[in-house]
Amino acid sequence: MIKNILVTNHNGDIIGATYPKRARGLIKSGRAKQIDEGTIQLTDAVCADAFSVNYMEDKKMANVIEFRARGFKLDENIANGKGTRLMVTECGESVECFEVAQGGIATGITKTAELEKDKDYVFRFAIKSQFVRADVAESSVSIYFKEPGDGYTYPIDRADKNRFKPAVCKKTDDGIFRVFELPFNSGDDTSCTISIQLHDMTAWIYPAKDNDAYSALQDIDYDQFRQDEIHNIAKTLNNIGGSIGGTLNDIGGTLGDTLNGIGEFAVGVGDKITKAVTDVFSKSADKEAAEECPKEEEAECKVTPAEEVKEEVKEEVKEEEKEDKPETAEPKD
């Protein structure tokens, strides 16, 4: 019989594995509850402590399959998957890792491992990743034997829930660093395929050191990391929005000043045009008046109506005096 039922404590941490018959007995006695087909959660603290001790002993005796980037290759069954093996510096040491960095697509890396029958194993690796959007598919590790689905699946990344707890979870300057220890039993099989499938995320997968080697890094819960990242993104967007708003206000003020200047300039030009047109029409009127009054008649043209009346009066007076004067008698011979 195979220990193929995972056992977790009340926090959801994997603390061991047990046989199906033993799992049914724990559930029946009320010391555990079933989470899914392959997982139970212990509700009895004493029982959980005992499982934790046994799990640590089992881990020491188990065959540990450590991640090595050279042993993995891109999964040919995933179209457009992209990844690169490269050397990086991590925690002050050079280490070979597998980098996947792309958006909107899935990437998988796989390897085949040789096993002994009916033996407990632990697949162990470290992964550093960045923020995962809320609408992406779940990233996971699959360990299967004859074909996909014939084995175990470990959900390691989902935007709304961290479903498989890492052994180490730390915050770094450029993301979150975790160490996963995935237990499984070989059963009747002598080989297995290990497949790491990542969806729409940037990540670096490393060999894991002893867990104590990461003690200097800041502990952080995965959900808290996501909340912090969402807060930072919102803060960045607010800053960008404020900067854009300030720039637009500056542009609006400058544009307003420019338009006011253009308006004042236009008014000045309009006044000048009006004056110029008025002068033209005034000069034209003077010219027409001059043409209607020739030079030889200039004197008459310059006589005002009052002077004309005076002349007429003088002429009338002369005529009246002439009429009133008596006629002189002619001398007689």
Question: How would you summarize what this structure contains?
Answer:
With 333 residues, this protein is α+β, with helices and mostly antiparallel strands.
Note down, in words, how this protein is organized.
With 333 residues, the protein is α+β, with helices and mostly antiparallel strands. The chain has three domains: 5-61, no CATH class; 65-220, Sandwich (Jelly Rolls), CATH 2.60.120; 221-289. Helix content is 37%, strand content 31%. The chain has five helices and 17 strands. The protein has helices spanning 20-28, 45-61, 222-292, 298-302, 305-324, and strands at 5-8, 14-18, 32-36, 39-42, 63-66, 73-74, 84-90, 93-100, 106-114, 120-129, 139-144, 151-157, 168-172, 175-185, 191-199, 203-206, 218-219. The strands form three sheets. Strands 5, 7, 8, 10, 13, 14, 16 and 17 form an eight-stranded mixed β-sheet that branches. It is rod-shaped, with a radius of gyration of 52 Å. The protein starts with a strand and ends in a 9-residue tail after the last helix. The model has no long low-confidence stretch (mean pLDDT 76).
